[in-house]
Write a structure and sequence with these properties.
Keywords: Membrane, Transmembrane, Transmembrane helix. The chain has about 60 residues and is mainly alpha-helical. It has three helices and no strands. Helix content is about 80%, strand content about 0%. Helix 1 packs antiparallel against helix 2. The chain is globular and about 35 Å long.
């Protein structure tokens, strides 16, 4: 289960990315994914648990040493 603090942190990160993307007025596919993730973390939908598992898996793959 995702904690409230973790969801808030991800919502803030994806929110900042979303604001910067909207200001640039040029949204690519990966940027649209960031905007969608922001909406999921902000809305706390039931799909969030599956998406959070995927995001955690991808981030741990990049930070694995």
């Amino acid at each position: 289960m995702i904690s409230e603090g973790t969801a808030f942190t991800f919502a803030v990160i994806f929110g900042i990315i979303t604001v910067l993307l909207v200001r640039s007025r040029d949204v690519r596919a990966w940027e649209a994914v960031c905007v969608g993730l922001f909406g999921l973390y902000l809305g706390q939908t039931p799909v969030l648990f599956t998406v959070h598992g995927l995001v955690t898996w991808v981030i741990s793959g990049f930070s694995h040493t």
